[in-house]
Write a structure and sequence with these properties.
about 450 residues; binds ligand LLP; 21 strands; 12 helices; alpha/beta; single chain
Amino acid sequence: MTHTLVYPITARNNAAGHLEIGGCDVVELAERFGTPLLIYDEATIRDQCQRYKAAFSAHSDNFEIIYASKAFSCLAINQLMLEEGLSIDVSSGGEYHVAKLAGFPSEKIFFHGNNKTRDELEYALDGGVGYVVVDSFQELDLLEQLLAKRGAKQRILLRITPGVEAHTHSYIETGQVDSKFGFGLGDGLALEAIRRAMNSPLLELMGLHAHIGSQIFQLEAYRRAIEILVQLVAQARASFSFECRYLNVGGGLGIRYTQEDSPSSIADYARVKVEGVREEVRAAGLPMPRVLIEPGRSLVGKAGVTAYRVGTIKEIPGVRTYVSVDGGMSDNIRPMLYGARYEGMLANKANLPADTTVTVAGKHCESGDILIKDAQIARPEPGDILVTPGTGAYCFAMASNYNGNLRPAVVLVREGEARVIIERETYADLVAKHRPLRH
Ligand code: LLP
């Protein structure tokens, strides 16, 4: 087995020589539910949740793990996170809606966003939202205005941009000075935001938040961000007796997409985050706050694999062989957007040697619609089931209907059973909101 590190923890080759996940034969799943099919392994998600809980418990009894639902906002997965005792981060009215439907109580919902609209904020305030993570002075004003109308108080955190570079793809780096997110430290803006929030009778400032980026392998950037945040807390305490009860140090732990990737462990991540905060507050003579973290990718990324059916195979002698599958950029935009690299295998030829180098292409009308360049797979034939692992985060979440392609079905597998958690779209869905030119 060469696929253990990148694949869900239940992945194995079965007696038929097929890839099996969660006790289900992937080739049978593809037959039964059609392709492209996104398969989530329940055991892997629960295992990741439990690893997070164990790792943080080893350092503290005052922490909170918040699922960043932007990685995959889905009713059933949210419910699974709730069962595991997690809180939830929502970044829009839509994600808030899904979290509420899943049954999250208000006090477990954190609402993020650099441009929450008035409608979104009103929707969340009306439905009950535990914490609004405020991103700008404009939002502070808007929130106060909406709260005044309701005569209600709201718990908030302030999003701080610590000015730290996270060494990841620039599109997913968020903590640097030049960022659309949060209150920067320059010109005392962050300090002013704290003062402003503390003075508001309608806002209860519980603490600060910073998220420096995603798919981060080097933990030093977190250490630096924590140092900067705690300096700010100390300053605000000295200036106007600010008490930071919650310190939300974001998400961002990277995962392994290919064998070459070497992400940090959850245990090391927890140590850096909790002990980092402890060391800094101790040095500054401050009380230890509750440590909040917001992982998305590392909770669901490895649990998901996508199964495609192989169609056209085009061999260009001496150049390359294109193996086209029945999905691509509309169900996984990450290779095109971030140059993300994936591995692949043929689920129906799991025991055969991966001795053929091919380029796995999508079916969309774009030359750049390439899922994997130079994949090593068994010798492909039309009809084979090609699987890409590591597609549990930010794939379905960023899926589109480009070229009129339908979003795939999603199934959750466990101990030999597969349940549809998102139905495949239909052609009727595609035009459900369209209206004809003339009635
Ligand atoms: N908290 C905040 C405020 C965030 O903005 C994010 C991710 C997270 C938590 C979760 O980060 P994670 O643990 O998943 O790294 N579409 C990109 C990733 C964008 C991440 C945006 N924010 C991708 O496919 O790589």
